[in-house]
Amino acid sequence: MHDNARPHTARVVRQTLAAANINVLPWPAQSPDLNPIEHAWDMLQRRALPNMEGIQSQEDLFLLLQRTWATIPQRDLDELILSMPNRCSCVVSVRGRNTDY
Q: What is the pTM for the complete model shown?
């Protein structure tokens, strides 16, 4: 998934997606990022980065990320989802501009 930001709409990206038969959803460029997976990725990254020393292969990285994902409390992920109505309300109240989320 991408947000139609300029790097994601470069010709080479569009051609690669088309060649792979991947349809891109219509999404306003630089729209407020309300996708909770972005915040879940951030949680994962913050927890994994301190443990990156010694990673020598994609398999090592995959295993680290798998172990790290298991340490994220389910309630934290649930809170991301439950915050969506408030996030949407904030975007509406600022007429689509950036929010604090």
A: 0.64
